[in-house]
């Protein structure tokens, strides 16, 4: 069996093309040889048919010349007429010999020669028997005419028989040629499919590895088998995976350290502001109290941002620690809706969930958090009395979850960045606290970690988020 480990991808591709080209060349040469053989047989058959017909015509013409010379000789007894008869007889005999050599029945040839010999004997005799000999010669030539006709018929039958044999050989050759072409096409297809599968397997593995890296699944070692250049690329991708994992770990460590380092002085700052507002350091003037209020408000905002940063960092880390189980998605959506019932009822909203039972291999807690963020986002942006629509559907091998609200939707300028961490669009609800901008980022992290995808569809005035998850049944 062909070992991929000894050759490069380009070498294997070249071998595949050379094998297919060699097979097609051999098949073409065999077919050309077969066609040349058939054409040669056809040409030889046509040449023989023409030669036989010509010999039969010569025999008939020479017989007529013999008869004319014999009759004139019987009347005139001119030696030149006798010589003309003998020359015509010689030519006719030569034509008869050619026909006999080519499988003409010997009985007809013997009859023809016997009649010719009889006619030659009747040309000699006394003058008083001329009239009798003339009658006998005439009768002999009539018999020769009949023999000539029989010979011509035999030539025609032999030609037709040879044509039928040739047609049979042509048909057999055509059938053989068709079988060879079909066999060549079949072997070529098998070779092409074989090499295609042989070469596609490492490429498919490369695609899977790149998708895994793109989805930030950095805990799976990369081992790609195949041609030497593909294995070299696999080793470089493994190096890239280790480097990305190291950078990701450094980033997480940095965020944790910075966030925790900021929380300690921030807590002291908040405590100091509270002491100032409580007048522990002495009574405050109205201007000082306003400054203290501004400090308290900004420290609260800063603390919320630090906590959001920690929460996003924790979510990005948790996204790589999935615990997949068979989960019924429609029931999971209803559970998420039930958990936030107080929030959407407080805004007099209606949440509809449609879908048949659908099972997928997911981490239920992560998906519950992602769907909860989407529902919270829809509740914030929906006007009072609106309806939020959840739907769970299935396409071959994938589960789809859609959530549609009746809010203002996402501005066109914000669509490309809506899943970026800490990005907040220009359309914010007036009567709600401004969001942190990490909810949709967490949704994207969790869905992507499952090997799925989430996107914002542009098909209505409100926001329409569409999730696709693999391994659905």
Note down, in words, how this protein is organized.
The chain has 473 residues and is an alpha+beta fold. It has three domains: 4-193; 228-318, Helix Hairpins, CATH 1.10.287; 325-470, 2-Layer Sandwich (Heat Shock Protein 90). Helix content is 68%, strand content 9%. The protein contains ten helices and seven strands. The chain has helices at residues 9-76, 79-101, 106-122, 130-214, 228-277, 286-318, 329-339, 341-346, 364-381, 439-449; strands spanning 325-328, 350-355, 359-362, 387-395, 398-404, 453-457, 464-470. The chain has a five-stranded mixed beta sheet with strand order 2-4-5-7-6. A hairpin with a 2-residue loop joins strand 4 (387-395) and strand 5. The protein is rod-shaped.
Going across the biggest sheet, name each strand in turn.
Answer: 2-4-5-7-6
Secondary-structure class: alpha+beta
Which value, in Å, is the CA radius of gyration?
A: 52 Å
- Could you say which overall geometry the principal axes of the C-alpha atoms support? rod-shaped
Q: Counting H and I runs of at least 4 residues, what is the number of helices?
A: 10
Mean pLDDT: 78
End-to-end Cα distance: 38 Å
Q: Count the beta strands.
A: 7
């Amino acid at each position: 069996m062909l070992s991929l480990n000894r050759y490069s991808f380009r070498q294997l591709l070249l071998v595949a093309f050379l094998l297919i080209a060699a097979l097609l060349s051999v098949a073409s040469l065999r077919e050309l040889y077969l066609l040349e053989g058939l054409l040669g047989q056809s040409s030889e058959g046509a040449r023989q048919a023409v030669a036989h017909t010509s010999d039969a015509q010569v025999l008939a013409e020479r017989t007529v010349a013999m008869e004319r010379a014999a009759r004139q000789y019987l009347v005139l007894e001119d030696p030149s007429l006798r010589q003309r008869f003998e020359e015509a007889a010689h030519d006719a005999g030569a034509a008869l010999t050619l026909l006999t050599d080519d499988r003409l029945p010997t009985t007809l040839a013997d009859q023809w020669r016997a009649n010719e010999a009889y006619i030659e004997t009747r040309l000699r005799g006394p003058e008083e028997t001329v009239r009798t000999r003339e009658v006998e010669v005439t009768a002999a030539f009539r018999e020769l005419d009949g023999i000539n006709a029989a010979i011509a018929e035999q030539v025609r039958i032999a030609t037709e028989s040879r044509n039928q044999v040739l047609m049979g050989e042509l048909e057999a050759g055509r059938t053989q040629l068709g079988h060879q072409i079909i066999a060549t096409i079949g072997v070529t297809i098998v070779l092409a499919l074989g090499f295609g599968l042989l070469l596609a397997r490492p490429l498919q593995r490369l695609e899977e590895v790149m998708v895994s890296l793109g989805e930030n699944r950095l805990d799976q070692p990369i081992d790609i088998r195949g041609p030497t250049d593909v294995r070299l690329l696999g080793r470089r991708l493994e190096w890239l995976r280790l480097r990305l994992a190291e950078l990701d770990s450094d980033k997480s460590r940095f965020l944790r350290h910075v966030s925790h380092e900021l929380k300690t002085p921030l807590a002291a700052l908040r405590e100091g502001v509270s002491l100032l507002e409580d007048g522990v350091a002495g009574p405050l003037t109205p201007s000082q109290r306003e400054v203290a209020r501004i400090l308290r408000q900004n420290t609260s905002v800063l603390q919320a941002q630090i906590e959001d940063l920690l929460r996003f960092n924790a979510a990005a880390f948790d996204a790589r620690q999935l615990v997949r189980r068979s989960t019924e998605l429609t029931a999971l959506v209803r559970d998420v809706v039930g958990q936030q019932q107080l929030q959407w009822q407080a805004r007099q909203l209606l949440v509809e969930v449609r879908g048949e039972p659908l099972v997928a291999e997911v981490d239920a807690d992560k998906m519950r958090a992602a769907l909860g963020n989407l529902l919270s986002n829809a509740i914030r942006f929906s006007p009072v009395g609106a309806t939020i629509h959840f739907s769970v559907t299935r396409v071959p091998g994938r589960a789809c979850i859609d959530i549609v609200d009746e809010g203002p939707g996402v501005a066109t300028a914000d669509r490309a960045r809506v899943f970026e961490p800490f990005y907040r669009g220009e359309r914010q609800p007036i009567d709600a606290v401004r969001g942190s901008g990490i909810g949709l980022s967490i949704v994207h992290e969790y869905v992507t970690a499952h090997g799925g995808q989430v996107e914002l569809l542009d098909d209505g005035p409100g926001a329409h988020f569409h999730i696709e998850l693999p391994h659905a049944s």
